[in-house]
Amino acid sequence: MEGISAQVVFTLFGLPITDTVVSTWVMMAILILAAILMRKFKPEAAEWIIEMINGIVGSVMPEDTRVVKYLPLLGTLALFLTLGNIFSIFPLMVSPTANINTPLAISLVIFFAVHFYGIKEKGFIGYFKDLASPIFIFPLEIVSQVSRTLSLTLRLFGNVLSTDLVVIIVFSLIPFILPIPLAVLGMLTGVLQAYIFTVLASLYIASAVEIETVEEERRALKQEVRPSS
Amino acid sequence: MWQLDSGTIITVITILASSIGIVLGCVVPAFVEGKAVVKALEGIARQPDAANDLRTTLLISMALLESTAIYSLLVILVLLFANPLLDRFFG
Q: Which residue among A47, A205, A222, B54 is the one 20 to 30 A from A150 at the CA level?
């Protein structure tokens, strides 16, 4: 049970601060420090990381989208999740994503970002018109939006929690050498889950933004066909 | 025959149900993921140029398949560690 529920470390002005929050603070400090140091001493490494995230996001978005527009959100997401999923290997720390509140918060950010970018690209009326293009699809579309947020949350939470639990259980049985390969496997799963979360988030944003270009293509195709026929 | 109180019966049934559930929830997605990997590997072997596209699609679909296993794991964790039915008897 200790591995699942968050432990209260100390109380700040009557507000309980759990170990998840403390780990997130440490992680934020590490990320910011790494960014500052990298900018000063090794700019080419930062460039490499940004190129990699750009490639990942660009590989799932349609060809002509400007990926740079969505890179601040999705790149931050990728870095945060990559470090957050493997953060339990550091002593005294827990993975922030092994508590259901963190994945839920990130998924809600994605949920609102999808609609924000969609409305920003197409306007309020146009976005909802595309969302309910045959009108009876609209309830199904709402269900799919909610369930996709839920599945993003539960997938990340369950994967990180299960690998952490396996390490904890094996450690309580044989606290010698054997947990190390399992921890490495957990790190691999964590990085993979961060990749998948980023790819799915960019897919969802692309699907909210993309429909317009398909419509335009269809319109262009119609105009091409009409004069000839 | 046996004089068991209802809390014990519920605990025993919960343990049985969660062990059966975790077995099914592990085995079925593993088989389905194996099918997906076999097909993707056949595709890569036949057409090595398309390996990158296939790998991306394979990873995403594997994650989507894997999430069903994770759902059953979460339900079983709730049953084992935070059983809502036990609170009726030991509230």
A: B54
